[in-house]
Amino acid sequence: VRLVGSEMCIRDSLGYMRIENNKNIMEDFMKQYIVDAFTDKVFAGNPAAICILEKWLTDELMISITTENNLSETAFAVKEQDGYRLRWFTPGGEIDLCGHATLACAYVLLRFYEKGTNKITFHTLSGDLTVNKCGDFYEMEFPAFKLKQIPVTQKIVEALGCMPKEAYLGRDLMCVFDDEAMIRKVNPDLDKVKELDGLLLHVTAQGKEFDCVSRTFAPKCKVSEDPVCGSGHCHIVPFWADRLNKNNIIAYQASTRGGVLYCKVEDERVILGGKAALFAVSDILYSENEEENKK
Fold first, then answer.
1. How far apart are CA 26 and CA 20, in angstroms?
2. 172-196 residues labelled b (16+ CB within 10 A) or e (exposed)
3. Angle 128-129-132 (CA atoms, 0-180°, nearest 5)?
């Protein structure tokens, strides 16, 4: 506890700081970490904002924080008896699975909060997800999405601006091309992508340096292009594992930032591996009085 002018400040063990100002309004500072996932250096991979909470904020406040961050994902976690409850938000709302924000959250927890262990379990909308740390490498076990082949329609061609060889639908729409050069060149019409089936759109092809090369577009989540999409590879990796007749897949996401995922298919699960780099640690100031947040 300390006094700053006429304000009383209290910081707890998780790094929260509460301020009682001269208006008798309790304001809180909450730690936020920004981590670049699926990379070993900053300014690459996929950035996610991570907030470790004492208790849940309102959904409205979590969406407001996510929108303010303007990253593809902000994740919120609260400790429970046997792990952490983890929720993921895009600027468009809450989603059921996110790989890079899970990796980023595990990185934060194992580096700053749970230093005596190399394993953490998250309870999520997609069930329990386990992350194991080995050195500076993190492995996550996710469910594989079942894919159904669908016709390549004129709407798909018009949205992509080019003709894929095949199309598949799981949670997301995945379009397969013959040439990885097309993956790097594709420039979809995002308004038309919104009209397609599936939450996200993935384009993928067999690679030369990597087993597969992909990109992900998510205008329905108010994200133009996701730099490195972990949940997308729960569609992409099982497909290429079957097509290439191999269980271990090294995948490259060919966004501007780029990222590498080391993957393995085991039964109906996908193990995604990668590294992470800490970009920033900051405090978010918010008020428990929601009317104050709106002013």
1. 5
2. bbbbbbeebebbeebebebebbeeb
3. 140
Each of the 295 residues of the chain gets a pLDDT tens digit; together they read 343 444 455 555 555 555 555 555 556 788 999 999 999 999 999 999 999 999 999 999 999 999 999 999 999 999 998 999 999 999 999 999 999 999 999 999 999 999 989 999 999 999 999 999 999 999 999 999 999 999 999 999 999 999 999 999 999 999 999 999 999 999 999 999 999 999 999 999 999 999 999 999 999 999 999 999 999 999 999 999 999 999 999 999 999 999 999 999 998 999 999 999 999 999 998 876 654 455 4
Q: Is 142 in contact with 127 (CB distance < 8 Å)?
A: no
Bridge-based pairing of strands 173-177 and 2-4 is: unpaired
Kindly name the residue from 20, 60, 68, 73 that is annotated as catalytic. Answer: 73
Torsion of CA 102, 174, 269, 79, to 10 degrees: 20
Of the candidates 23, 21, 47, 27, the one whose C-alpha atom is nearest the C-alpha of residue 35 is 47
Q: How far apart are CA 140 and CA 100, in angstroms?
A: 10
CB 65 within 8 A of CB 51: yes
| Structural tokens at position 278 | 């800490």
Active site residue 73: yes
Which is nearest to 53 in space by CA: 21, 82, 87, 91?
A: 87
